[in-house]
């Protein structure tokens, strides 16, 4: 019985460590030109085309960038660089922006 508890505890700890390591790997920086903007409840989603011809849908909200002092409204045609959590859904690239690095 003690061995079963130890093995169970070890499996829980290993699962936690693996999940934490996986979450860190999802951070990414994306730079490119804003092609379109769609408004949302507390922010917007900007479609960004990169120099490598990749398309990203960047969700930018006041809460995710750390408050109104870090929030910026971009315009179509702006060159932007953003950092955040990346994920892919079917054939679309998405990024939940946690930092707006630059807007030109």
Automatic annotation (TrEMBL):
Keyword vocabulary terms for this entry: Signal
Provenance organism: Flavobacterium resistens
Signal peptide range in chain numbering: 1-23
Protein name: DUF3221 domain-containing protein
Origin: domain of life: Bacteria
């Amino acid at each position: 019985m003690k061995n079963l508890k130890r093995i169970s505890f070890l499996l829980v700890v290993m699962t936690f460590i693996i999940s934490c390591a996986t979450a860190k790997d999802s951070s990414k920086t994306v730079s490119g030109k804003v092609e379109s903007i769609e408004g949302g409840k507390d922010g917007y989603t900007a479609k960004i085309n990169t120099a490598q011809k990749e398309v990203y849908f960047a969700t930018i909200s006041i809460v995710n960038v750390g408050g109104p002092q870090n929030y910026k409204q971009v315009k179509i045609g702006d060159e932007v660089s953003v950092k955040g959590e990346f994920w892919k859904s079917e054939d679309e690239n998405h990024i939940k922006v946690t930092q707006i690095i630059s807007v030109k």
